[in-house]
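step 3/5: co-fold with hypoxanthine
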Amino acid sequence: MSYEKAVEAAEFIRSKYSKPIGTAIVLGSGLGAFADDLENAVSIPYELIPHFARSTVEGHAGQLVLGEINGIPIAVQQGRFHYYEGYEMEQVMFPMRAFGRLGIENVILTNAAGSLNTDMRPGSLMLITDHLNCMGVNPLRGKNDDRFGPRFPDMTAVYDKELQEIVVKEADTISRERLANATDKEAADFLHRGVYCALSGPTYETPAEIHLYRLLGADAVGMSTVPEAIAARHQGMKVLGISCITNFGAGMTREAINHAEVMETGARVAEVFKELLRRVIGRVGH
Ligand code: HPA
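step 4/5: write tokens
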């Protein structure tokens, strides 16, 4: 049934926006402003799209925005469905199912995340090279529909190497421009790479848990992205993941973690984040 639902959602989206779309972007907490930059945009609240759930968390607008960046049509999810909100995994990954039926080939997943590395500071970005699924569930559990993809999908290379290279190159260009214009070396060194560990939330971690995830090989922790990445790979789409580092993991500083800080840091990096996305779309969008 879910395949037919995905087809129905895709047909509805297509009826509102007919240009062919190659790339979809999911905007994480505090990063929603990018959607405001789309030209000739059409916004569809999630509740109008057949079988989409609604987004409830603060900082997520809850709409699909279709429009162009430098003439390249893209789909932008302004707000996503989190497992901690109480949605079933099927609902969390449903937009990926619809994107697949729309013929979208590249999915850019973004999120806010806590850093587990002392040299990866809040306000920087982390290119996701791999993930640890510590959510306690797999979104593909249950009967497999072969029309989406295979029963046992390979996860050797979830995050596309070529897309990663494009990000590194474009970030490098931005860094060089920043260095030329400013003496602030920190402002130039904004892109890190690492392993993203997904947790179910909604609590932030304890210091003991942060210690554990560091030992497991995680560089950042968050509460999203992995279900969508798995669903997108299941369907053969290329995945790119970028984390906005909003805070250090619990216990790494004297401060407590709060959602307001996460949102503020997201807003602080919005400019470099938007510029990077714009450049990356320019390279992959066609
Ligand atoms: N932990 C989990 N999720 C997060 C964090 C964190 O420290 N920061 C932003 N999202």
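step 5/5: annotate
The pocket of hypoxanthine is lined by residues 112-114, 204-205, 221-223, 246-247, 249, 257, 262 (CB under 6 Å).
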